[in-house]
Amino acid sequence: MAIDVTMPQMGESVVEGTIEKWLVKEGDVVVEDQPLVAISTDKVDTEIPSPGAGRIAKIVAAEGETLPVGATLAVIEPAGAEAPAKLKVVAPKAATKPEPAPIQAKPAPPPQPAPQPQPMQAAGAGLREAEPDEVGPRRFSPVVLKIAAEEGIDLSHVPGTGIGGRVSKRDLQRYLDALRKGGTPSVAAQPQTNGSAQASPRPATSPAATTPAPTQSGPGFKPPVYQPIEGDIVEPFTRRRKLIAEHMVYSKTHSPHVGTVAEVDVTKAMRLREKHKDEFAQREGFNLTFLPIAAAATVRALKEFPRMNASVVGDSVVTRRGINLGIAMDTDEGLLVPVIKAAEGMSVVGIARAIESLRRKVAEKKITADDLAGGSFTLSNPGREGNLYGFAIINQPQVGILRMGEVKKRPVVVEVDGADAIAIRTMMYLALSYDHRVVDGVLGNSFLFRAARILEEADFEL
C-alpha cells in the first residue's frame, strides 16, 4: 500500500508551508525517518522525515509551492511492492497553472464576491473559505486574507497556482508586483463601494488596454527607488527577514504604540547575582545572567497587573490565564522570540533553566514552531554598548513589550539617614511599549513602576 507524505502540523498557529528544496528525487530508495524535503513556514524552517521505507514513486509538490497542512507532498511505494507501472498514485486535483504574473489581459470571468477583511484570528484558526464560484470554493490562508485586506485586493481576481487553484502568498505578491510596475495582471482588482462585487460581469478588455491599480486613499505617495551603483552590496531579504518585516509593519499600523521609561536602581539585584554566580554555574552548568532576574520581576508584575498579560482577538481583548513570557533572541537570520510557557509558576532558577534551554535550541537550530507560539508578553534585552533605552515594537497579538537598557554604574542622589548623598549605584532603564487600544496610561505606568520596584528590592531566591 502506497504511503503518502503530507504537510505536517508544525505548531498550533501554522496552517501552511512552502516547499524550499527536495532532498530526494523520484525513484530514490529511502529509509524511515530519512529527511525528504525542506519546508519553510511563517514560524520556523524544518525538514520532513520519511514516514516509512520504500521508493519515491511520485513527487506531487514542486519547489516554491505553498500548501496547507495535510496536503500530499509525495507518494512512497513501500519495499516489496509491485512494479511502479502498477502503482496507482492519487494526487490532489489541481487546476491548470497560469503563467507567472504579469500576464496579458484575457476575457474576464464573472466577478466573485470579495472576501470581507477579517479580524486577526486566534492561534490555530486554520483556513477560511471564500465565496464559491463556478468551479467550486476557493480557500485562502489567514496570511493571504490579511495582505489582501490591507492592499484592497479582490482575491477572486488573483490567479492561484496551488492545489485547486488556491492562491498562495507568492501568487498574491506576484499580482501586487505586477500592479505596482504598471503591468496588466490577468484580471485587475476593482474598488468596491459596499464590500462586494458588482452584480453584472465586466466586459472583456483588448490586449492593448491597461487596467489601473486599485484606487488609493490619500496622496498615494511612492518612495523613490535607489539604483545600486558599483561597489554597493545588494543582499536580498531572506524569507525570515521578510516575515519579520511584515510583522513589524503590521504591528505598527494596527497597534497605537505608546512608550514610557523607568529608571531602575539594580544595585541589589546585581549584588545578588554576584554573590551566587559561581555556586550557580557549578550547580547548573551554565552562567547566571541578569536576564532571568529581570524576567522573574516581569512575571511578578504581570501577576499583579493581569490586563498587561492579554491578547487582542478581533474586536475583543482576552486576558490570559497563564503567563507565557517571550524572550527575544538574536540569530544570524534575524530575531526569534521563543516562549517560556507557564512562567507564573517558576522561580528565578526555573526561568534561568528555561531561557538556557531555549537559547541552546536557537543556537543549534533545533527550535520548533511550538517553542515560538503562544506568547502573552515579551521581554527584550538588546545587550550592552550604548543601549541607553529604546522602544520595541509589540509582538502581535500581545499588548505590551518590555525592553531592557544597558546596566551601568553612575553617580546618583540617594537618601542616607534622612539626608541626601551622592553614591555610585548600578542603574538601568526599562522601556515599556504598550497598545493604547487596550492599555491606558495609568495601567501602563503602574505596571512599569511595579516591575522596577520588584527589581530594586531584589527579593529572589537563588
How would you sum up this structure in a few lines?
The relative contact order is 0.11. The model is unreliable at 82-108, 114-136 and 186-218 (pLDDT under 50).
Q: What about the largest sheet?
A: 7 strands, mixed
Average pLDDT confidence is 79
User: Fraction of residues in helices?
Assistant: 10-25%
Poorly predicted ranges = 82-108, 114-136, 186-218
Q: Topology as H/E string?
A: EEEEEEEEEEHHHEHHEEEEEEHHEEEEH
Number of strands: 21
User: Radius of gyration over alpha carbons?
Assistant: 27 Å
- Beta-strand percentage range: 15-25%
Which quaternary structure do these chains form? single chain
Description:
With 462 residues, the chain is an alpha+beta fold. The protein is 23% helix and 23% strand. The chain is built from eight helices and 21 strands. The protein has helices spanning 142-151, 169-180, 239-254, 267-284, 291-304, 348-363, 369-372, 441-457; strands at residues 3-6, 16-22, 29-30, 35-40, 45-49, 54-59, 66-68, 72-78, 128-129, 139-140, 257-265, 310-313, 316-319, 325-327, 329-331, 334-336, 339-340, 377-380, 400-404, 408-416, 419-435. The strands form six sheets. Strands 11, 14, 17, 18, 19, 20 and 21 form a seven-stranded mixed β-sheet that branches. The chain has a four-stranded antiparallel β-sheet with strand order 1-8-6-3, with no helix packed on it. A hairpin with a 2-residue loop joins strand 15 (329-331) and strand 16. The longest helix is centred in the middle third of the chain and has 18 residues, at 267-284. The protein starts with a strand and ends in a 5-residue tail after the last helix.
